[in-house]
Each structure stands twice: as structure tokens, then as C-alpha cells.
Known about the structure:
Strand content: 15-25%
CATH class of the largest domain: Alpha Beta
Radius of gyration: 19 Å
Largest sheet: 5 strands, parallel
CATH topology of the largest domain: Alpha-Beta Plaits
Structural class: alpha/beta
Order of helices and strands: EHEHEHEHEHHEHEEHEHE
Number of helices: 9
Number of domains: 2
Strand order of the largest sheet: 2-1-3-4-5
CATH superfamily of the largest domain: Reverse transcriptase/Diguanylate cyclase domain
Amino acid sequence: xxxxxxxxxxxxxxxxxxxxxxxxxxxxxxxxxxxxxxxxxxxxxxxxxxxxxxxxxxxxxxxxxxxxxxxxxxxxxxxxxxxxxxxxxxxxxxxxxxxxxxxxxxxxxxxxxxxxxxxxxxxxxxxxxxxxxxxxxxxxxxxxxxxxxxxxxxxxxxxxxxxxxxxxxxxxxxxxxxxxxxxxxxxxxxxxxxxxxxxxxxxxxxxxxxxxxxxxxxxxxxxxxxxxxxxxxxxxxxxxxxxxxxxxxxxxxxxxxxxxxxxxxxxxxxxxxxxxxxxxx
Length: 281
């Protein structure tokens, strides 16, 4: 039985060529050019759709809104989402619910190969793309619980977001390297944070730290310490270290907002304003 992939993009060029490439790899590709059309397809076929691919490189806002809409619906939120996004937008998509990313440019064969890898991982581990928290709640619920705790305690809360991005478009080896580095980073951060701090590995590429009683300024100091240890203890063991970028952002409650949406928005704005993308040397 063919696996089914829903492909979203505002304007799909050479659609039949793309469909045929996937068909030749035993994958049925269903196309959509709007969130509304996607929801109609999911309403009819959500039990059969194995993966959603959203090409948001030309219209990031379209992609981000689509992810939020899909993930809010219980019947659809379990379906993993791959985003095709420019490097500066990767963290935004992963943070709000996408599970994998692919950085353009791409051709149909490379995209199909990448999708095939994701589908294979999904077949091998059905729980692979669930948010990894220590309690049974969604990432947004967990994030909100940290905000409410800070509100009750009347303290500042810094939120650090760190994403390791691979530059390789066809990264069989790179993907495994990113996963290894993320796992090591989680362990390393846990060892170096205070007892009151919390570290959450969200999806396969994001590490998010909640730092109570910490201003944004002090949060940046914490990040610099984490980055030094990361470079010394983790990155130094990677042979092809130039193939990776570290994307970092930060927001602070209540300075940058008092809701999950506001804090994530301001974290994204911080990233764009400061161009905080560290190329690994």
C-alpha cells in the first residue's frame, strides 16, 4: 500500500513532474495550495495521510499559520509536518509544531529522498515525533504552565531556544549527527543548569530551557556559557562541523509578553533583529 503525503505550497510549479517522481518511489503525493484546501483533504483522508510537507520558503507567514491551524485540530495534530524553509525561518516552524525541516533550494528527486527517510523513521518508531517532556501534556500546555508558575511567583522567566541546523540538503549522515548532538546537548545543559531550571527537548532539533528568576540579559549570559561548553565538549568531536549552524533566540516573561504566542513572536523578532545565527567554525 502506498504511503500518502500531502504537499502544500502557494504556487506549485511542474506539479505533475513532482507527483510522478513520488509515484515512482511508491509514494502518493496529494497537492494543496491553501490552508482551506488542506483542511478539506484532511477532513476526508486524515486517517490515510502519513506526512504533511509545507513549502514556506516564499511565504513564511502562510506556512506558519498553516502549521498552527493543523496542530490545533485533534484529529490532525498527530500527523508529522516537514517544512521547506529558509534558514532564518526553520526555528519558527519547529517551535510551533513542525517536526522536520528541509532547506532550499531543492529538486524533486532530493525532496523525495528526504521524505522517504522521514517516512521510514516514522514507520520504525511511531512515537518518534511526540514532544519530549517529562509529563503528559503538549508543548504549548507545558510552556503555559511555566508562564503561570512565574505569574504566581511574581518572577522573571527567561526562555532560551537553541536549534542545530544542518546545511546539507541530502543529509543521511548529517541527520544522525544532529540527533546525536541534540541528545548530548540536552544532557550537558541539564548538568549545568540550576535545580529550578527546566530543559525540554522539543521535536528532533530544538532544545528549550526555562530559566526562572532570570532576566533576558542574564539568560544571554547563561547561553554564552552553554555555547562555550557545547563547542568544547560536543562540537569538537564532529568531523564536518562546518556543515552546521546554531540558531539561537531568547524571550523573557513578562518583558516580552505574558502568553506563549507573544513570547514566541518576540523570540523570533529577537532572532531577526540581532541576526543571531552562529556559523560553526
